[in-house]
Fold:
Amino acid sequence: MRFCVLMIGVTLMWLGLSIQTLALEFTADQITKIDGHTRKASIYYRDQMWRIEHHSMGPVNVSIVRKDKQVVWLLLSRMKHFKTVPYDAEQELNVTEALEGEVARQEIGREVREGHPTVLYEVTTKQGELIEQFYQWVATDIHFPMKLAKKDGSWIVEYQHVKLRSVSDYLFNLPLNFHPLEEFQKVPEPERPQSGM
Structure:
């Protein structure tokens, strides 16, 4: 009897871990450095959809990526408009331990980042004939890639203040009072003079 209870407990724990790895939900601050330029954003993520609140100046304040619908909504908050563009796989966030096209991974060190113990890996990927190398810092306690850098230093994506928690549906839907930008870009046809009889 005690063995059966133990086996049920182990099975439930295993199922819980499996479900947790399948349904990733988190909030974080994202810092991106590309060719010496730094951009900051707040990320709200749930599998197949994520919201990026940009901290930089520009017309687009928020991007809502809906991979499940294959669209991206660019919100222009000051104007209360949005633009719809097609989803592109290049917009995918690197938030899993394995990289797409990964062919080799070697541990090269350990350190603590943001209070999380991490393992630093050198990772090699292959996309067609293109071979690239990256450094990746993976937090071992939350199984999350805290930082990813191209080996040549041309770009870095780092996550800070990562919190694994449920994220509201509200964040991934269009605000009710926003209107499609396309409606306001149409040029009205000139009125034709009516012939008087």
About this structure: The mean pLDDT is 84.
